[in-house]
Amino acid sequence: MTTTSPIDGAGLLDEIEAFHRRFNAFPTPAAYVAVVLWNVHTHLLDAFESTPRLAFLSPEPGSGKTRGLEICGMLVPQPMVAVNASPAALFRAVSGLESGRPTILFDEIDTVFGPKAKDNEELRGLINAGHRRTGVSYRCVGDGGQQTVQAFPSYAAVAVAGLGWLPDTILTRSVVIRMRRRAPNEHVEAFRSRIHEPEGHALRDRLATWADSIRDRVAGAFPEMPEGVSDRPADVWEPLLAVADAAGGDWPRRAREACIELVAAAAAGDKASLGIRLLTDLRDTVFCGADRMPTVQILAALNSLDEAPWADMSGKPMDSRQLAKRLGEYVTADNEPIKARNIRTGAGVAKGYYAADLYDAWKRYCPAPKAPESATPATDPE
Questions:
Q1: Closest Cα partner for 276 from 331, 229, 326?
Q2: For 95-99, which contacts have Cβ atoms below 8 Å and span 24 or more sequence positions?
Q3: Closest of 316, 238, 274, 255 to residue 48, by C-alpha
Q4: Range 166-190 burial, b when 16+ CB lie within 10 A, else e
Q5: Which of 124, 235, 362, 364 is the most exposed place for a label (fewest CB within 10 A)?
Q6: Which 3 state secondary structure label does DSSP give 261?
Q7: CB 104: neighbour CB atoms within 10 A?
Q8: What pLDDT shows up at residue 364?
Q9: DSSP classification of residue 224
Q10: pLDDT at residue 382, as a whole number
Q11: What are phi and psi of 348, to 5 degrees?
């Protein structure tokens, strides 16, 4: 009677990483770690409360996004390649569990959510709902006046590739890999599906076997998060860290280092919230320790920032009305909307904003402050 030796999880993950490295030039080592762990977690969806989306994004074509998606497709269960797939098609594929839950690989996602596309709220809702194991999509079932509303499961792993960015509701549920064109000194192996698909499928089959062996262990796992990673980023990374802990070896350390790096990069590049960018710029480059500042001075400072959007808000610099509207969406420590108040200056009284009104929003929404900079108070105290 022969016995099968248990699979070395860390060694298998090393092999999967090496397979990706043959064909993909990811921007950082952290990206390889994240993609490998995402590949593994697709075999263990029912062990987790949520499934992070994997997003290969780049500013220009020819950056390897589709290849990254293609290699993932050889390593995940039930891959379903979607290009301009309709919400109805995806809904039927995900809810038809008798044929196996698909792993959706959505290429050219910019044609769905890009600036020239429509809102596609139905598809966005399906992708968002499928992030959680309890997620469902509602559809009317029946004919004519006999229709009833029925809930269908929508939980499924999703990887996307596209130009530009994504809606914030999807972006915050994603591990983002910012792809770029290969430099002249970066080389990858030419991919030939007839040759390399069997290799990828062999890895996938071994991965499925190993995943089954650790299923009970990861189902009850609550992996320790790196310091500072909480809320939605913690939801995104929990399944990936659980997989890394089960693999052992160097993977728990590498996974947490990758988590810290990619969460910070996503926060730094998040274009979804201009409000948070505004609050942060006010704190770090406008007020700089001043306790109050007239609106005209705030606008001059904001519109002079070289790498900020304020000088070109739909073709015009930000004005006092836009500033008031954006800041009014946040509240003070007393739960009152932030608004301009009178400020006494050497020239009289002007409308402006007080740091005390902004402090609570700074604390709640902004990333850790930069090192303190010297600043001259902009106005005389009352």
A1: 326
A2: 95/137, 95/152, 95/153, 95/154, 97/153
A3: 238
A4: bbeebbbbbbbbbbeeeeeeeeeee
A5: 364
A6: helix
A7: 24
A8: 87
A9: P
A10: 43
A11: 130, -140
Phi-psi region of 144 (alpha: psi -120 to 50; beta: other; left: phi over 0): left
Q: What is the DSSP letter of 316?
A: B
Q: Quote the radius of gyration of the chain (alpha carbons, Å).
A: 25
- Nearest in space to 156 (alpha carbons), one of 93, 101, 232, 214: 101
Beta-carbon neighbour count of residue 150 at 10 Å? 13
Backbone angles phi, psi at 95, to 5 degrees: -80, -15
Tell the residue number behind the tokens 């549920």, with chain if given. 173
Q: Which residue has the tokens 């836009």?
A: 322
Which residue, chain included where needed, has tokens 């505004």? 278
240: confidence class by pLDDT, cuts 50, 70, 90: very high
- pTM over the 0.90 mark: no
**Furthest CA-CA distance within the chain:** 95
Q: What is the C-alpha to C-alpha distance for residues 299 and 354, in angstroms, rounded to an integer?
A: 14
The H or E element spanning position 280 is helix 274-281
What pLDDT is attached to residue 265?
A: 84
Hey, what are 239's tokens? 């399944």
Mean pLDDT for 132-137 is: 74
231 φ, ψ (degrees, to nearest 5):
55, -135
